[in-house]
Specification:
By secondary structure, the protein is of the alpha+beta class. It is about 50% helix and about 20% strand. It contains seven helices and nine strands. Helix 3 packs antiparallel against helix 4.
């Protein structure tokens, strides 16, 4: 501001500076905590929905396919009950790393809570058969990664996972519906014996089962 005398002559200028770095850092930290899981640092449900909304619009615009995975560890509760939550937390952190390492850098991985993880994939392809092949490879890779030993505090844990998959191409379904369908498919995988993946689409699932039976025979 300008300081003048009684005659209007400028005598001085006064300026006030304030360092707001700490305030901005604090706000950024609060925003990060509001959108990320504190244990694994993965996006939480709130951020997942924001990222999914963007991805769904892009998939629809480009006429590509998207896929939503629900990944749930089988019998994880036994680890918490027998070894304690501290060990269980380490298992979850390691699982998050294994899932991330199985995916591309731009794929979305989130933790909803407990031992439930969500993955969102954007498949740059129009051919449904090729899309399914890509998704199957990713699902199998995740299952194999989780089956590897967890060596934690002299314990050797052997885990498996159940995966539910919802394939989509357009904006006909809301985010909550997509998540519900993937969740339903995940429970179907558990009912079929765990350590496997299932599609929500009954036709796709029957095709997979037919192929699996042909391989066995």
């Amino acid at each position: 501001s300008v300081v003048k005398d009684n005659n209007g002559k400028v005598l001085n200028y006064v300026a006030l500076f304030s360092d707001i770095t700490k305030i901005k850092d604090s706000n950024a930290k609060i925003d990060y905590l509001a959108h990320h899981d504190p244990l694994t640092n993965l996006p939480n449900r709130l951020l997942l929905k924001e990222l999914l909304s963007i991805m769904i619009k892009r998939v629809e615009r480009n006429n590509y396919y998207g896929a939503l995975f629900f990944v749930d560890l089988d019998h994880f509760k036994i680890i918490n009950d027998t070894k304690g939550h501290n060990i269980g937390d380490i298992v979850l952190i390691e699982t998050a790393k294994r899932i991330k390492n199985s995916l591309r850098q731009d794929d979305i991985t989130a933790r909803l809570g407990g031992d439930e993880f969500v993955i969102a994939l954007e498949i740059d392809e129009n051919d449904e058969n090729k899309v399914i092949e890509s998704i199957n490879l990713i699902a199998n890779k995740i299952l194999e990664e989780i089956k590897k030993p967890y060596l934690i505090h002299n314990f050797d844990f052997r885990l498996t996972a159940s995966i539910g998959i919802m394939l989509f191409k357009n904006g006909n379904h809301k985010i909550d519906e997509l998540m519900k369908f993937a969740d339903t498919a995940m429970y179907n995988a558990k009912e079929k014996g765990r350590n496997r993946y299932c599609y929500f689409d009954p036709k796709l699932q029957k095709q997979l089962e037919r192929k699996a039976n042909l391989v066995k025979n």
